[in-house]
Amino acid sequence: MRDMIKMVVVIAVLASLSGGLLAGIRNSTRERIEYQQLVFVKGPAIRTILSECSNDPITDRLKIKDGDTERSIFVGVLDGKPQVVAFESAGKGFGGMIGVMVGVNLKDDKLLRIGVTTHSETPGLGSKATEKSFGAKFSGLPVMDITKVKNDGGQIDALTGATITTRGVCEAVTIAGDIYKRIKPQIQEKIKSLKL
């Protein structure tokens, strides 16, 4: 019986040490992991959406609280002024959640472009949502309006063979509009304090 108690104590101590070590490593690498995700996963979409900006939007980003969520807002400078922002939203596609980066002009609240950051859609069909030509279809639409596929009475042509994917992207853009309504005052306030 004594041997069993010793074994349980030893296992508990080892588990505690291992858990503490893993938590420490996770905390110490959190910023590096976030930066790598920004550069290699979200970066291509951000740079496509904010391609006309004179600054590096990944470096010039804000953190804004939206309820319990902290959102990264990427600021783009046009004509020497911070005039556009990009942030991420998500919608349900055919293969799961689709991450969508949405670019918005702060002056007229219209979409610049959108770009898909993450997806599990069917190669050759739903994966076409990552193409620049698809993201450009959203250009000029009011961000605060509901975005839908034309088959559902909306303004976006569905990708051939990937209507569910297109609906997921439209859902993400609509959710982004709701997010934008809530956080626009915070964005405008924080942009004033940016040194660009």
How would you characterize this protein structure?
- The protein has 196 residues and is an alpha+beta fold.
- The chain has one domain (46-192).
- It has three helices and five strands; from the N terminus they run H-E-E-E-E-E-H-H.
- It has a five-stranded antiparallel beta sheet.
- Strand 3 (81-92) and strand 4 (97-105) form a beta hairpin.
- The model has no long low-confidence stretch (mean pLDDT 90).
Provide keyphrases for this structure.
single chain, 196 residues, alpha+beta, five-stranded antiparallel sheet, 3 helices, 23% strand
Topology record:
Elements: H1 2-49, E1 61-66, E2 69-78, E3 81-92, E4 97-105, E5 110-118, H2 132-136, H3 163-192
Antiparallel strand pairs: 1-2, 2-3, 3-4, 4-5
> How many DSSP E strands?
5
Distance, first to last CA: 68 Å
What is the assembly state of the chains in this entry? single chain
Strand order of the largest sheet: 1-2-3-4-5
The largest sheet, given as strand count, sense and whether it forms a barrel, is: 5 strands, antiparallel
Helix content: 40-55%
With helices defined by DSSP (H or I, 4 residues minimum), what is the helix count? Answer: 3
Write down the overall mean pLDDT.
Answer: 90
How many domains, as an integer? 1
The geometry reads as globular
